[in-house]
Specification:
By secondary structure, the chain is mainly α. The protein is about 70% helix and about 0% strand. Keywords: Membrane, Transmembrane, Transmembrane helix.
Length: about 500
């Protein structure tokens, strides 16, 4: 991997369309935590992780994932002040490893966020249709509900980012609030007759069953927290806001998932939780809420599950549109994608493109007759999980190379130790994801291989583009601050 032959020129980025805003730490945290869809993870992923992974020891996998991602975050945030570009992953990778890697990472990021957005669109169409039917409404195709949600998302994405942040803030508080209430009641009652679970503290329990599968499901729940840097142009004092938002989002997500998964295990008991999770994973959290909070709470949980999915898809829409916007300003995609709205200061063209891409993907899924959960959600989420973890790994490597080459920051923990530990941890997780990709793709080896090939082709295409469009490639990595002073 030759990385030092193509350093980024130490010049400032060219003048282009810019987004604007005054987002603080709280607003950015709301958006990235909403993308992680906390209630969706606790209601959907936790039961599956318990049943297919390591049983009552499953909550520990969230703690392990948070620690590995914390190593990534240390280097990621250390590099933030040296790369004043809202391109996030691909800007960091391009500055550290060179133009080909940067362009390839940009394309992998597009594939990853297109697929994760599509995964949530499929799930919310199915879930919303089921909720309407349960209350006596009409039985309509899942894709019709998906397009209704897509229209609302497109309108919000077209407007100023602060409108989306307010909507996401309200939805996030509601979904997190009811889960925390359930957690508190379970803990207050001491769980079942067995008492509160201690399995996640027992190495034997944590390593029982299939811990690799457990870790695979756990890491998928963190997708989105790394997108803080994409809001750089709309942040207040980005050199401080972005690092603080990154650490805050990771801490909130990690603690919330660990505590909530532990509460679910405690609510059923170590001896019974695996059987319950395997029997009815989709309704496990609702039933738990009904048992501990009453029937009404179970109904509220079902509604908030829909809003959790909506919050996630809106967050992914905002992230993906800003990727298109940033790439439009570097010439990788049409320049019109990089235009900002004169009134809303939003990436309105990129937002429309994001909506169209999502509509085409969902229309193709509907025409193919794919199941919205077992196929659309599972397959697309599998692609996204591998892509995002792969980008995190490349970002860690880029941090190591960048600081070693430039010497602008000589703090060992931030520039060597933590990123190196991140490389080791993310490599192990990526290997697990690739090995189990056929499982994420519905058990099909052919689909699993195809998904991996798609991501590799996207990465390789970056090197082709770097040769074919050198000016765009130069703009992609032309972000390093010339005045960055070494830090001791």
């Amino acid at each position: 991997m030759a990385t030092t032959s193509d350093p980024a020129p130490p010049t400032t980025a060219p003048t282009d369309h810019r987004l604007s805003g005054k987002l603080g730490v709280g607003a950015i945290v709301f958006m990235v935590v909403a993308a992680a869809a906390p209630l969706t993870v606790v209601a959907g992923t936790v039961p599956i992780g318990i049943a297919a992974g390591n049983g009552p020891g499953y909550p520990a996998t969230y703690l392990v994932s948070a620690i590995v991602l914390a190593f990534f975050a240390v280097g990621f945030t250390a590099m933030t002040r040296h790369v004043p570009n809202a391109g996030a992953f691909y800007s960091y990778i391009g500055v550290g490893l060179g133009r080909g890697w940067g362009l390839g990472s940009a394309l992998v990021a597009l594939v990853s966020y297109v697929t994760v957005q599509g995964a949530v669109y499929g799930y919310i169409g199915f879930a919303l249709g089921g909720l309407v039917e349960s209350y006596g409404g009409p039985s309509l195709p899942w894709w019709l509900w998906t397009f209704v949600v897509m229209a609302v998302t497109g309108v919000l994405g077209f407007r100023h980012i602060e409108l989306s942040s307010k909507v996401l803030g309200v939805l996030l508080v509601a979904e997190v609030g009811i889960v925390l209430l359930l957690d508190a009641v379970v803990v207050g009652k001491g769980g079942t007759d067995e008492g509160l679970s201690s399995a996640f503290l027992n190495p034997t329990e944590v390593l029982s069953g299939a811990p690799g599968l457990g870790l695979m499901f756990a890491i998928a729940g963190f997708i989105g927290f790394e997108a803080t840097a994409i809001f750089r142009d709309e942040a207040r004092d980005p050199d401080r806001t972005i690092p603080r938002a990154t650490y805050a989002a990771l801490a909130i997500i990690g603690v919330f998932y660990t505590v909530s998964a532990w509460a679910v295990v405690s609510a059923w008991g170590d001896s019974a939780v695996v059987a319950e999770a395997a029997a009815d994973p989709g309704n496990m959290l609702v039933v738990t809420a009904q048992n501990y909070l009453g029937t009404a709470a179970g109904d509220v949980m079902q509604v908030l599950f829909i809003t959790s999915l909506f919050a996630a898809v809106l967050s992914f829409h905002n992230v993906l549109s800003r990727y298109f916007f940033s790439l439009g300003n570097t010439g990788v995609v049409p320049a019109s994608f990089g235009r900002s709205h004169p009134t809303h200061s939003s990436p309105h063209v990129a937002s429309l493109v994001t909506t169209v891409v999502g509509a085409v993907l969902m229309a193709a899924s509907a025409i193919a007759g794919l199941d919205p959960v077992l196929e659309v959600f599972t397959w697309l989420a599998g692609i996204a999980s591998v892509g995002i973890v792969g980008l995190m790994l490349l970002a860690c490597v880029a941090v190591l190379v960048f600081f070693r080459r430039t010497g602008v920051d000589r703090r060992p923990w931030q520039t060597v130790v933590a990123p190196a530990l991140g490389v080791l941890g993310l490599t192990a997780i990526l290997v697990l994801l690739v090995q189990n990709l056929p499982l994420l793709m519905g058990g099909s080896t052919a689909l699993g291989v195809g998904a991996g090939v798609l991501l590799l082709v996207a990465l390789a295409a970056g090197f082709v583009l770097a040769k074919a469009r050198p000016s765009a490639a130069r703009d992609l990595v032309r972000a390093t601050r010339a005045d960055a002073a070494p830090q001791i």
